[in-house]
Write a structure and sequence with these properties.
The complex is a heterotrimer. Chain A is an alpha/beta fold. Chain A has 9 helices and 12 strands. Chain A has one domain: 3-Layer(aba) Sandwich (Rossmann fold), CATH 3.40.50. In chain A, helix 4 packs across helix 5. The longest helix of chain A is centred in the C-terminal third of the chain and has 18 residues. The radius of gyration of chain A is 19 Å and the shape is globular. Chain B has 2 domains: 160 residues, 3-Layer(aba) Sandwich (Rossmann fold), CATH 3.40.50; 130 residues, Rossmann fold, CATH 3.40.50. In chain B, 47% of the residues are buried. About 17% of the residues of chain B have low confidence. Chain C has one domain: ABC transporter involved in vitamin B12 uptake, BtuC, CATH 1.10.3470. The N terminus of chain C is likely disordered. Classes of the chains: A alpha/beta, B alpha/beta, C mainly alpha. At the B-C interface, helix 1 and helix 8 of B face helix 4, helix 5, helix 7, helix 8 and helix 15 of C.
Chain lengths: 266, 328, 348
């Protein structure tokens, strides 16, 4: 599945015409099938908005978003849900669902109106839990899990949707180093083993550097640059994007780029 | 969750809980409904007067008091009594709910139980103010201003007659008060005599319910003014065993008590169509003898519910409903 | 790491597949409701002879026992069941809609509107009827609809999801405003009417016939038909509105249906029996403690349990101090208040 965003503009509604602003302006991005793309940019640059547009939750004011050539606005909600799944930054269920119940909710788009989950759905759910290393947590209450466990469970529930595209919003933002690595290697594995196309919005440059094969740099609602990571992730680009001086180097032992911000004495 | 959202929800919960508490238990007690027997207190801070209080009887020492001019009455029952004993011309203002006799319509109003207009009362410079027993705050204020008050407590028929006498004494119409009380007693005795020969039907005396429904019915219990009237009129209250002025029976209880006669008293008059509709509402409880025999009577007029000088009329009206054959 | 004791109860409801859990739960709660409703008319403040009540040879109009059973008690039990089911279900749905387990059917102002309507009718002696609806229930429905319409208009944006914070604020505001209006009307009215309004606010299931229930029935049926559509969407919605949308839930439609159905159920319940508190919050909580949090189970189970609960409370209300009756709202409050304290102590 390739996801194509063409000349998309979006702004949140505002009553006052003069203060109506665009969060995204004339954004065109192509996500190749099977790629692991990172959306990078400072806070408020519009990367979360772009993700939401990709899910179909928001509709662009101008431009189109197509999935394998089909406009997503034309795809019925349920069908779209079978193709695109989202892992939000934080998930706070209002009730005390178990891990298994959370993951089974991912089967919703595959069920009929009054249909209950059957053995196949249960099998898929358990399989998703195994893939994310959380099978042993199936009967635990979601809210009692640690941050990393929670995030992996949410990824499992997105996997249960059996999507072709997985969109993640700051998947490692609230996790400590160990969990960050855990989730990162999980995503890597899923992308390589299952061929799930992934787009993740992050401002963790090193995560992007280590995990993503392509990057889209967004600044103030416009695409600054996009392309393979090694081409796009340069010191000059980072300076333009974040107004921060950084050094980008290839790190032999790990096999990918690293970014080191440089703090000058005032 | 954002802290502000949490606070909002806490606020919502508090409001919902207090709303729920209000709905499920808060209960404003109106003194007019408290049957505490009769108790008249005359407060007299002016020098030379006696502090008088009494239960069943009022002691007055010294001569018959000179007529008090400038009386304000907050209690409709007492207003009627004033006019009945000849103190009408002395009345300078009445309550918002006063309606009888017709002379009061022209008089200024000074509020009622919940909202007495103290400023207005003081401006009118009364010599005596007739208040409800529960208006203790008002009584204190008036006492401080040097104004005498006469405190009213709701009671049965006997209590009403005693109040009439006490009021006569307090306003310089003691003889008129006694005479009027005797007159009314004679009326009541006459009614009682008329119906004495007849057996007492088991009667349900209803004084309030939801329109076109038997829900939230208020009936007279075995105490209080309405019960006394029923007794005098030759009826036997089906709820005589419940020592309360007011009872709210369920459908089941009414069915179980099975009255022979139902008397509904209302202050507002019902049109003919409404009467037949309200009569029809009872049809559901067909096993009640009163319903089976069509003995449901609708009486209207505020003299039926005001424990004042027109109790004789009230007793007669009820007696006519219960024992029509006695009035042929 | 499980600090919450509720996990233990809930997990025990966990691993079995939902199909069998749903079947077992519905059977159990349904049986509870049925048994309660069958037994309740047998008990009352008056002792009656059941054999006489069911004796066909005595003409109905002469048979006091039959009248007590069929005219006084049965409609009362049926009203209790219907109102209990409606309030409990409305509570479940609103708790999911507002993503807050403390929401009640009265949170969004519908009951305050119903109360204002009823109190205006009582205080000013309204006489308009519509079919089997007598003046006070009719006015109550009108008030409820007005309140619901106001809240809906404030919180809905065309084509977009409802803002739950606006919903909550609108509901709280309306509650306060209408409560103030109610107090004002009570102040202006005659003593007798004021006391009757206070009495109405305490709730009363003694409908004395099937007519009033028939009046409320169309709304109840409509509400329950909509309730049937909601549970799986409510599950997803209660995890998060955006994530629900990405799983194929039509969020705006689900929210509107949730609001509409709970408003219909609450309007019908309050216009029939007055605002009976705590049913809409105690029952869903108890059911969640016993049967887990999946709305596909919680919603129908709460309906059944709500019916049984209210019928039982009314039974207590009408027998415990016989022949004096306690308003049923007081019994539910006396049970509900301590229950909540206990819940809070447990969680804390």
């Amino acid at each position: 599945m390739s996801l194509s965003i063409e000349h998309v503009s979006f702004g949140y509604d505002s009553r006052d015409e003069t203060t109506r602003s665009f969060s995204l302006r004339d954004v065109s991005v192509t996500i190749q099938r099977g790629s692991l793309t990172g959306l990078l940019g400072p806070n408020g640059c519009g990367k979360t908005t772009l993700l939401k547009l990709m899910t179909g939750v928001l509709r662009p004011r101008q431009g189109t978003i197509t999935l394998d050539g089909r406009a997503i606005s034309a795809i019925p909600r349920r069908e779209l849900a079978k193709q695109v799944a989202v892992v939000p930054q934080e998930t706070h269920p209002a009730f005390d669902y178990s891990v298994l119940e959370m993951v089974l909710m991912g089967r919703h788009p595959h069920l009929g109106a009054f249909q209950l989950e059957g053995p196949e759905d249960l099998a898929i759910a358990r399989e998703s839990l195994s893939a994310t290393g959380t099978a042993h947590l199936a009967d635990r209450a979601y809210m009692t899990l640690s941050g990393g466990e929670k995030q992996r469970v949410v990824i499992a529930s997105a996997l249960a949707q059996a999507p072709d595209v997985l969109l993640l919003d700051e998947p490692t933002a609230s996790l400590d180093l160990a969990y960050q690595l855990e989730v990162a290697s999980l995503l890597d594995r899923l992308n390589h083993d299952r061929g799930v196309t992934m787009v993740l919005a992050t401002h963790d440059l090193n995560l992007a550097a280590s995990l993503c094969d392509s990057l889209v740099l967004i600044r103030a609602g416009r695409v600054l640059a996009q392309g393979p990571t090694r081409d796009v992730l340069t010191g000059a680009m980072i300076q333009q994007l974040y107004d921060v001086e950084a050094d980008v180097q290839f790190h032999e032992p790990s096999g990918h780029l690293t970014v080191v911000p440089i703090r000058r004495a005032p | 969750m954002a802290a502000c959202k949490k606070r909002l929800i806490l606020l919502a919960v508090l409001l919902a809980v207090t709303g729920g508490l209000k709905a499920s238990g808060y209960h404003a007690v109106h003194d007019a409904r408290v049957a505490a027997g009769h108790h008249a207190v005359l407060e007299a801070p002016v020098a030379g007067d006696l502090q008088v209080s009494g239960g069943a009887g009022l002691q007055i020492s010294g001569n018959d008091r000179a007529p008090v001019t400038r009386i304000i009455s907050l209690v409709p029952a007492l207003t009627e009594m004033l006019f009945a004993i000849g103190a009408g011309p002395q009345v300078i203002a009445v309550s918002s709910y006063d309606d009888f006799p017709p002379e009061v319509k022209a008089l200024p109003r000074v509020g009622a139980l919940l909202d007495p207009d103290v400023e207005r009362i003081l401006t009118l410079r009364p010599g005596l103010v007739l208040t409800y027993g529960s208006q203790s705050g008002l009584e204190v204020q008036l006492a401080r201003a040097g104004i005498r008050t006469f405190s009213y407590r709701h009671g049965g028929v006997a209590g009403a007659l005693q109040t009439l006498r006490d009021l006569g004494a307090a306003t310089g119409h003691a003889a008129d008060g006694d005479r009027k009380a005797r007159e009314i007693q004679a009326q009541l005795d006459a009614v009682q005599a008329r119906v004495r020969a007849y057996p007492r039907p088991r009667t349900l005396l209803v004084f309030g319910r939801q329109p076109q429904s038997l829900q939230q019915m208020y009936v007279s219990g075995g105490a209080g003014f309405l019960h006394d009237i029923l007794q005098i009129a030759g009826g036997a209250n089906v709820f005589a065993d419940v020592r309360q002025e007011s009872v709210q029976p369920s459908h089941e209880t009414v069915l179980a008590r099975a009255p022979d006669v139902i008397v509904e008293v209302r202050t507002r008059q019902l049109g003919a169509a409404d009467v037949s509709r309200e009569r029809g509402v009872w049809a559901a409880l067909a096993s009640i003898p009163a319903v089976r025999n069509g003995r449901i009577h609708f009486l209207d007029g505020d003299y039926l519910v005001i424990p004042g000088p027109r109790v004789g009329l009230a007793a007669e009206a009820v007696a006519r409903a219960l024992h029509p054959e006695a009035f042929k | 790491m499980t600090s919450s004791g509720s996990t233990i109860a809930r997990v025990s409801a966990g691993p079995r597949p939902i199909r069998s859990r749903l079947a077992v739960t519905l059977l159990a709660y349904g049986a509870l409701a049925l048994v309660t409703c069958l037994l309740a008319p047998l008990v009352g403040s008056t002792s009656i002879s059941l054999s006489r009540a069911f004796d066909r040879s005595i003409p109905f109009a002469d048979n006091v026992d039959a009248q007590i059973f069929f005219v006084a008690r049965m409609p009362r039990v049926l009203a209790g069941a219907v109102v209990g089911a409606a309030l409990a279900s409305a509570g479940v749905v609103l708790q999911a809609l507002l993503r807050n387990p403390l929401a009640t059917p009265f949170t969004l102002g519908v009951s305050a509107g119903a109360a204002l309507g009823a109190i205006l009718a009582i205080s000013f002696g309204a006489a308009v009827t519509l079919g089997p609806l007598s003046p006070v229930p009719l006015a109550s429905l009108a008030g409820a609809f007005a309140a619901a319409a106001i809240v809906y208009a404030l919180a809905t944006r065309p084509g977009r999801a409802m803002s739950t914070s606006v919903l909550l604020l609108a509901g709280v505001t309306l509650n306060s405003f209408f409560s103030a209006l109610i107090l004002f009307v009570q102040y202006l009215a005659d003593f007798a009417e004021t006391y009757r309004t206070v009495r109405w606010l305490m709730g009363d299931l003694d409908v004395g016939g099937f007519g009033p229930i028939l009046g409320a029935l169309p709304l109840m049926v409509a509400a329950f038909l909509i309730f049937a559509l909601l549970p799986s969407s409510l599950n997803l919605l209660s995890v998060g509105a955006d994530i629900a949308a990405t799983r194929g839930v039509d969020v705006a439609r689900t929210q509107r249906l949730a609001f509409l159905s709970s408003a219909l159920a609450t309007s019908a319940a309050v216009s029939l029996a007055g605002p009976i508190g705590f049913v809409g919050i105690v029952v869903p909580h108890l059911v969640r403690l016993m049967a887990g949090v999946d709305h596909r189970i919680v919603l129908p189970a709460s309906a059944f349990f709500g019916a049984a609960f209210l019928v039982a409370c009314d039974l207590v209300a009408r027998t415990i101090l016989a022949p004096v009756e306690i308003p049923v709202g007081i019994v539910t409050a006396m049970l509900g208040g301590p229950f909540f304290l206990w819940l809070l102590v447990r969680k804390g």
